[in-house]
Design brief:
With 515 residues, the protein is mostly helical. The chain contains 19 helices and 6 strands. Strand 1 and strand 2 form a beta hairpin. The radius of gyration is 34 Å and the shape is elongated. The relative contact order is 0.08.
């Protein structure tokens, strides 16, 4: 009242804050309604005191500078029996803070605990002391616990102390899943409508002790089945799917895994076919080399002395950049074919580079936020990038197929023929990928920046938001994976082998300098 000297007079006139007082409302204790550390501006808004600012700009508005604490009332001294015991640097600080919190939040049966138990579940001290974080002060995780009116606590963010899992464990589909949804005992995962994040809830009677502090490391499928069940409410596939393996790395942020059947079988057949092709090429090359030696037996010493073989790093780099990366020779033969080929090659090369950077960042730079934005398929830049490159690949496939159907096919000397089965497989991979993206967006209800995935977002509008979609998603995923495996298997048995051999041949040609 020393500052707000108009309040008593207003109350006598049945006014408070410019409004009529409410019948039955007590106005004797200001702190029943007002937070003393909120500044009410002339416009009616409030501003919480920022203790990072100089004291004379905040506290000094109301308080004079003090060199020691004032004498406390008898009621205040009761509070300070606990609060005065907190001294910076005390080795028993964590235990004292926990005891203070448990004074109200334990289920031991005191009067204050009974009152707290009517509002929220209580903690069982014996269970809590066996949890991994029991040695920490409660305020280490519950940052607002020591604040005035701490009832409205924000959810604990584990990443205050812990770095997120790398991509090999979490995978891109779990970029928006909160740690507690997997690691807490006795909770149920829930999806936030506003941002699509997977958090948790606990539906148990308030009279039961709270044991959500028990953090576990999930083993096997136990934790996965919290979300991945038929009829789940978080938009997850009912089928447990393997992580994206090395088979997916040309187009996705994938993991260095080989565990699923499709990857294992595809890579075995691919390696067998590649080995057979390289053996055939080596035998032909050896025969030609032997014939050349027999033909030029006389004077060969002079020829070898004037044509030394050496590693020319500059020339190798020149070949790799101009003829492998930018396809210079193909452009010189046919600019139109270079354009079509570029619509297929450049998006896949960029996707591969994106995936390698994101995977490497998740392994060695987990503290960098941009790494997780690159992994999160609902991030605006990531969603736009992958849909844009997917459209480029589809355009390249359609142009190549139309060129084959509408024009009379003819070969260009020195270049491999087109492989149309590979084009069909590649187009099928991208199309099923877009359909899966649309199904994922429809299942999860992802909004906001997910709309930057303009193709997948448009396709998602075609699907009903039903539980059946979660049951069939896994089958679509396996169709996409089988098409990818078939494409990889087809490479060494077709003229698409030049994808692998051309860089090798160009590098070997750059090794020898012809005078």
């Amino acid at each position: 009242m020393e500052c707000h000297d108009n309040v008593p007079e207003d109350l006598e006139n049945k006014l408070h804050g410019g409004k009529a007082t409410s019948p039955g409302q007590s106005y004797e204790n200001c702190l029943d309604c007002h937070n003393p550390h909120q500044i009410i501006s002339a416009g009616g808004g409030t501003e919480t005191v920022d203790f990072q600012k100089p004291l004379d700009q905040q506290c000094g508005v109301c308080h004079e500078q003090q060199t020691k604490l004032p004498v406390f009332s008898e009621e205040d001294e009761t509070c300070l029996t606990c609060h005065r015991s907190m001294v910076a640097g005390d080795p028993d600080m964590a235990e004292k803070i926990s005891q203070q919190c448990l004074h109200c939040h334990a289920n031991s049966g005191t009067e204050s605990q009974k009152i707290t138990g009517k509002i929220m579940p209580l903690v069982a001290p014996e269970q809590y002391r066996g949890t991994p974080h029991s040695g920490l002060a409660c305020t280490e995780c519950h940052l607002q616990a020591a604040a005035f009116q701490h009832g409205s606590q924000e959810r604990v963010n584990c990443r205050q102390c812990h770095l997120p899992h790398n991509e090999a464990i979490a995978h891109d589909a779990h970029a928006t899943v909160g740690c507690q949804a997997c690691h807490l005992q006795g909770v149920e995962p829930v999806r936030e409508t506003a941002n699509g994040r997977i958090l948790w809830k606990r539906e148990r009677h308030l009279s039961e002790p709270l044991n959500i502090h028990e953090m576990i490391i999930p083993e096997g499928e136990t934790a996965c089945r919290r979300c991945h069940t038929s009829g789940n409410s978080v938009g997850a596939s009912a089928m447990l799917l393997p992580p994206k393996s090395v088979l997916c790395m040309p187009c996705h942020t994938a993991t260095l895994s080989f565990g699923d059947t499709i990857t294992v079988v595809s890579l075995i057949i691919f390696c067998m076919g590649l080995g057979m092709s390289l053996l055939l090429i080596f035998s032909v090359y050896s025969g030609r080399k032997k014939q050349t030696r027999l033909t030029s037996a006389s004077g060969s010493e002079t020829e070898r002395s004037t044509n030394p073989r050496r590693w020319n790093k500059v020339r190798i780099a020149h070949e790799m950049v101009l003829n492998v990366l930018f396809q210079k020779r193909l452009f010189e033969h046919s600019p139109r074919r270079w354009f079509i080929h570029g619509l297929l090659f450049f998006p896949m090369a960029l996707r591969f580079l994106w995936g390698i950077v994101a995977l490497s960042g998740s392994l060695w730079g987990k503290q960098w936020p941009w790494v997780w934005q690159m992994i999160d398929k609902n991030s605006g830049a990531t969603a736009l990038f992958f849909d844009l490159t997917g459209v480029m690949i589809i355009s390249g496939v359609l142009l190549a197929l139309s060129r084959y159907l509408l024009e009379r096919p003819h070969g260009i000397a020195g270049l491999p023929r087109r492989s149309y089965l590979a084009l069909v497989l590649l187009g099928g991979i991208v199309l099923t990928g877009f359909v899966l993206e649309g199904m994922r967006i429809a299942m999860t209800g992802a909004g906001g920046s997910a709309a930057y995935a303009f193709v997948g977002f448009a396709i998602s509008k075609l699907f009903p938001h039903s539980e059946a979609l979660r049951d069939v998603y896994g089958y679509g995923w396996y169709v996409h994976a089988v098409l990818t495996g078939a494409f990889i298997v087809f490479l060494p048995f077709s003229r698409l082998l030049h994808i692998i051999l051309s860089p090798v041949v160009l590098a070997l040609n750059a090794v020898t300098r012809h005078e």
